[in-house]
UniProtKB/TrEMBL annotation:
It comes from Sus scrofa (Pig). PANTHER family: PTHR47978. Residues 187-211 are annotated as: Disordered. Belongs to the small GTPase superfamily. Rab family. The keyword Metal-binding applies. Its EC number is 3.6.5.2. It is a lipid-anchor. It catalyses: GTP + H2O = GDP + phosphate + H(+). It is found in: Cytoplasm, Cytoskeleton, Spindle; Cytoplasm, Cytosol; Cytoplasm, Perinuclear region; Cytoplasmic vesicle, Autophagosome membrane. Its cofactor is Mg(2+). This is Ras-related protein Rab-24. One of its GO terms (cellular component) is cytosol. Interacts with ZFYVE20. Does not interact with the GDP dissociation inhibitors ARHGDIA and ARHGDIB. CDD domains: Rab24.
């Protein structure tokens, strides 16, 4: 992919091991990789073209590293994002605390960024409901408060993964339509160029977004 036009910059944020890379893998390649866990180093980029009604929308998805070691780098990647998918693991309460940390940052620093909260690994709850460590209703209240949308997904089974990314694209289209109607100009699409990926199975890493 070179010089591909991206309509919506999407950034994946969340504690390490919550399943950000797996979510992108399921959505983009419809697969769930088994084998030893490989943490993301820095960030990885992938673009996905999709349809919303009769429109084509290209999502440019930045999968950031969850390790706190890379926190400063993740900040570079969320700059200018139109959507952030903030992930937490439904079986790990500390990962929800980390999600709140990212929400706070985005709310303070990226006003125009729509937040999607994503509770991951829902298949583990289907196996054993007692594994849930993050209450659905608590998160729903929190999501209402911060005007975010909430999804619970499984990259293993694919549950709600397409719906999540579809909603991101649909929201982009309706906001863009609203802006055209009201005459408010919309930022021009981001141009990307190709470069080898920093990590993992995702590919096509463009230049980091400029501040
Ligand atoms: N059962 C189950 N396991 C999952 C799911 N999603 C991810 N995992 C597992 O959780 C581990 C971490 O997944 P990753 O996608 O690498 O997590 P990450 O958030 O990208 O991690 P970092 O790159 O370190 O930030 C891997 O062993 C995955 O196989 C899921 O939906 N269900």
């Amino acid at each position: 992919m070179s010089g591909q036009r991206v309509d919506v910059k999407v950034v994946m944020l969340g504690k390490e091991y919550v399943g950000k890379t797996s979510l992108v893998e399921r959505y983009v390649h419809d697969r769930f990789l088994v084998g030893p866990y490989q943490n993301t180093i820095g960030a990885a980029f992938v673009a996905k073209v999709m349809s919303v009604g009769d429109r084509t929308v290209t999502l440019g998805i930045w999968d950031t590293a969850g390790s706190e070691r890379y926190e400063a780098m993740s900040r570079i990647y969320y700059r200018g994002a139109k959507a952030a998918i903030v992930c937490y693991d439904l079986t790990d309460s500390s990962s929800f605390e980390r999600a709140k940390f990212w929400v706070k940052e985005l709310r303070n620093l990226e006003e125009g960024c729509q937040i999607y909260l994503c509770g991951t690994k829902s298949d583990l709850l289907e196996e054993d409901r007692r594994r849930r460590r993050v209450d659905f209703h608590d998160v729903q209240d929190y999501a209402d408060n911060i005007k975010a949308q909430l999804f619970e997904t499984s990259s293993k089974t694919g549950q709600s993964v397409d719906e999540l990314f579809q909603k991101v694209a649909e929201d982009y289209v309706s906001v863009a339509a609203f802006q055209v109607m009201t005459g408010v100009s919309f930022p021009s699409p981001v141009e990307t160029s190709s470069r080898p990926t920093a990590s993992g199975p995702l590919h096509e890493l463009p230049d980091p977004p400029k501040e």
